[in-house]
Amino acid sequence: MTAESFGSPQGGQGAYGAYGAYGAYGAYGAYGAYGAYGLPESPVSAEAFITTRDGIVGAPLDNIPPARPGVPEDVRNLKRLSREVRAAIFSFELDAQIELTVDVEETATATLWRRQHKEDKHRPRCDYHKLAVLTAPRMDVFQAQLAYVTGYADIRQDRAAEILSQLAAPVPFYQTISFIDPQRTPYTIELLATALRFTNFCEQRVKYALAAKRPIELSPQVQPMIPTPTHGSLPSGHATEAFVMARLIWKLMRQGGAPQYQGAGHWGEMLMRLASRIAVNRTVAGVHFPVDSSAGAVLGLTLADFITERCTGQDWTSAKFDGHHYSPSADFDWHQLYQADDDTQYPKTEGSEGIWAKARSHESQCGKSPVLAWLWEKALAEWTDFDPCAQN
Amino acid sequence: MVLKWTASDTGDHIPIDALTYKRLASDYASVLDMAWWSAMIELEHTSIADLETRIERHFPNDLIIPAAYDEADRSDPKDRQFVAIFARRSVLAEMNHTGNEFGVKNVHLGMVTSHDWLNREARNGDMPDIEVPPGTVVMAMIDDGLAIAHELFRASRDTTRVEFCAVLPTPPDTARGDATQGRILRKAEIDTYLKNLTFSDLLDEEQFYSQTGQTDLAAGTFSPVSLRRSHGTHIMGIAAGFAPEIAEAARPIICTVLPPRVVEDTSGISLLPALSLSLQLLSKQASRYKCAGQPVPLVLNFSFGNFSGPHDGTSEVARLLEQFIADNPAQKRWMTLPAGNGNLARSHGVLQFPESCPEEITLDLRVLPDDNTASHVELWMPYSEHSPPPDYVSVTVTPPFGPESATVDAREGQIQALHDGEGRVVATVLYTFEPPPTARGLITLAIDPTASLKADAPLAPSGRWKITTRPKAISADQQVEVWIRRDETLPGYRPGGRQSFFDNGCYQRFGPLGRPLTVDPPDDPCPVRRAGTYSGFAGGASPMVIAAYTDKSHQLSEYSAAGPLTHTPMTPMPYRNGPDASAKADESRVLWGVLSAGSRSGSYVRLDGTSVACPRVARQASDEIAHWPLTAREWLSHAVSEHPFKLPPDTAESRTGAGGIVIPLDWQKNAAK
């Protein structure tokens, strides 16, 4: 078993691959130590344990003091669980909150709904609220956007190293802006992995529902420089995940209170520029249209806010991407969707064909998930400056 | 492939220039007659207004004179002048007749220009004087891909030092209506973009270049500013870059961005109309900057070069640059040009026929497979005052696996065309006469592409072509100078051209230690030469022409092209024997190039070539131009003696001119006043 199983965002390319790619991870803290401590699971070790027991077990004891029962549904248990086990629990907490409906008219509309539990401890009772609504553009938009895919192909040689390094979720690129490291910020990494798994869970389902064709199916001359993933084109998974990561890191920085992360929003802007670059690189590579990135950014920014709400009980944002009003000639421009310095999505985004994106902020009605809050607090502590007065 | 030569019949029509209406992009071959071409014409004793009137009579809607020419320009019947125009094929064909009624002496085609990129209603707006403080020197740049938002060209986060930037390859801003082609950005507009597109103190440069017209990836207008490294940005950084903290106000920048589709034609031929329009735009702007009523000095850097042309100062580019320098006699105008990078390109041959020599000289021309563009070889006859000039030599051409052509003599009407098995022309050998001031015969071998993605395109064979020249009326002290046109594909571009070269066995490529020989061996009998690879653009009398040296090794850079030039007809001596001086272009043999601005703010990238040596001189020249009483080239010679860079004593003057010059580059230091 690998040290981590963060799922496989980007359809098997493995957002998680990022962690492998990311060198130090193999040595990950306790796991390295564990390797040194234990014997491998093998017939030899099992035989050794059996003979050892036979040798020393002695006659049955009859006066062992009784143990206490476990503490049920208590976050204190989390730190004693392996990361794989925690990953499953965190995923449950997020995945179980989401439902999907699909309407197929001229094009498909996928709606991600979030649950809102009602008071009843013994039986699930809930309402649903729209979280993200994505309507696929008509084919003529994709057809027109082929011009971008062809144009961006001109700069492939300039971007090839980036594109190949970003096949998996490009966590190491975020490490160039934010001080993330397995030794320094293990819980931040765990939080991001949780978010990426959830993002992939949502995005793949939406892609499946919308079934948008890839550039390679619209022209034989795209000739992407990397294999085209088998899943749908819109929304771009890379864009979705890139903006989830950028926004979550930015929220941790802001909420951590360190002075350099406050104020003018420099780190936030840089994180978003990076997310945008990662998204655009997929168009350069020939596997996405710009409109895919626009839809992905809407979804990613929205999911990041939702994840934060589940972790903290802070406000969340619902959003809508309407491909029918997306101008065929519009390139991807994240600045139309989001303002980094105050971490808000714009209520309306309008192009030459009308309003193509909307967002609305909501107060949290159902409180945070204690399990996710535990993870968030641990991660947030990694971004908080030490109090100089509290020394010794 | 069965190949066959025939003598084509040109009939009574004697064209001035071989206007083929074909360009690198093979799609242009099927261009409609209604398409607009950019062109540069040469007028003799005719004003632009007269030309317009005469054309109007026959072709009321087929000519556009750019708004950059104001009323005064249009009414001036100069002896000779180059004018950039946009015209349809019918007009161009009429202008291309010898003795046409329009006063047109020569026509040079550029590219088909999209109707959407032209604003026929454009009018030159008011151009009031701009009062500037003493010490101001206007810095002018013409290049492709100018990342004007780089911090080296800003005075603060949201104010630019670029006063004027004409972006030619973009749809016009019809609301302003001041540009016939492309958009003109002025400082106020650039500042507004900088302000509106800055978020959290960071400029969104993708949006900046998209909104200001330099990048439109959906329109297929590739721009080098989409790449990390762009030629124009790097060079402008060296010539006119200053750190924003020092807010240098004494070096305002005016510039034009050339269309990439003319830049990618490295022969330089398609460039003429855009260059001529750029110079006109910059000349008008430059004249506006005044101090106490007098125009302030200007330094223009143009880091472009080619291989071919007469190399005697009479090429169109050389004369066009002289026209710019002389355009406003009240304004001191200096210019820097690169010497060229073709020293080792094996693109130049010299044919001499002394008594003792064999009766013929053969140049082996290696034409590469997978060459998607045409290859051209120019054989320039000696200058002659006689009309017609003597029939100096005869030439035959033998393609790979094909028969030798009949002779093409150096006299009017001589032509041979090579046909493929289906009768289609795949190569032509043609004599033309380049009229005064050049006054030289020219035999051109034009070879079609050797590869094409079009199934029915006629293709020339790749391999070794033999060009055999036999003496006729040429004397022992005269020579035929041969250049292969530049045909390589620039980084990021995609015409798919491959540079052909001379492959004679006698050419000694390497020295005893295995390094490439950078100068011809003494008394080398081989007709293929390094000497004379000098850029065909840089033959004029006025520009400062700069070679490249490598700092650590104290040698000229291997690629840095060399003189001499051919005999200049208008003067007893050539204007020059090669470059005027050399400047730093490489750190060392392993660390090539020098650092300057990348395409995005905060980035610095490496580029080499004589292209990056000449802006260094432009920068230094801008500090000295106001005070130096003599010519630019005399200043440079003086500056070399004051700040010499040590080069081996045997470095030929034809490679380094007055010598190497040390010019420090410090973006943190204010310009001299």
TrEMBL record, chain A:
One Pfam family named in its UniProt record: PAP2
Record-annotated Phosphatidic acid phosphatase type 2/haloperoxidase domain positions: 192-306
Listed InterPro entries: PAP2/HPO (IPR000326), PAP2/HPO_sf (IPR036938)
Gene3D superfamilies in the cross-refs: Phosphatidic acid phosphatase type 2/haloperoxidase
The protein, known as: PAP2 superfamily protein
Species annotation: Primorskyibacter flagellatus
TrEMBL record, chain B:
Matching InterPro entries: Peptidase_S8/S53_dom_sf (IPR036852)
Gene Ontology terms for molecular function: serine-type endopeptidase activity
Matching SUPFAM superfamilies: Subtilisin-like
GO biological process, one term: proteolysis
Gene3D superfamilies registered for this protein in UniProt: 2.60.120.1290, Peptidase S8/S53 domain
Highest rank taxon of the organism: Bacteria
Protein name per its UniProtKB record: Subtilase family protein
Biological source species: Primorskyibacter flagellatus
